[in-house]
């Protein structure tokens, strides 16, 4: 039970210092009302979500984070044939690169819910996996096969050639960036997490560790509004482009900026798979959001520039 203490490196205060004066918010899933005596619903009969102040911090992944990290990977990969247990072990084993998002120690002391499981303590994971150097691991082989098969099925001819050529060239190492968090964690936390990841990659490279990437692959979660296309056809052509932009909702907003720097991408619907990334009740007049995955291939030398764009975006 205490094996995690051996890997519990010093808390990464750097991952949240930029946010100390701007506590992050998260929605209370209990649906409690702000009004005393309420049943937790407003006059329209819809649940009310309470906003509470919660401070988060980044920490080195450790053994006790296993189930929490695996749960986050599950919401990304859904039913894909990938050994998520082995992938989680890999992330924890290279804990000198990457961070888990956890509630700050001060907030934990004030929390009465001491019986919460470890899985509920992990709110996000940001790390990178070397898909080239770690080919001997089954989970990495599964990831590589999955990417090729999905691209063959859903990508353009250009994307298929790009992905197959890149993954087949060991001289150009590819890193899979894992950037997962619960949907109610604000985008501001992306800045310290990505900034820390970039610095940790650079330190690992200085130590001649296998983190000298040529490209990064990022698998993004996004949602598209069903029925938007039909309405766009009825609108003036001058308005169509802006209407089409509004039909996409990114689970992690910063990934829209990453997408703009991608040299290649492909996407596919995961509607038939169980996806609870965007939870909540749909109203009768609401449009249903169809879940997608968009796979981005981004030159590694663009990471720092992307981080600067994210900083401006959240400012």
UniProtKB/TrEMBL annotation:
InterPro entries: BCP1_family
Signal peptide region: none
Annotated region described as Disordered, given as residue ranges: 1-45
Basic and acidic residues composition-biased segments: 25-37
One annotated Gene Ontology cellular component of this protein: nucleus
Family: Belongs to the BCP1 family.
Name of this protein: Protein BCCIP homolog
Organism: Gryllus longicercus
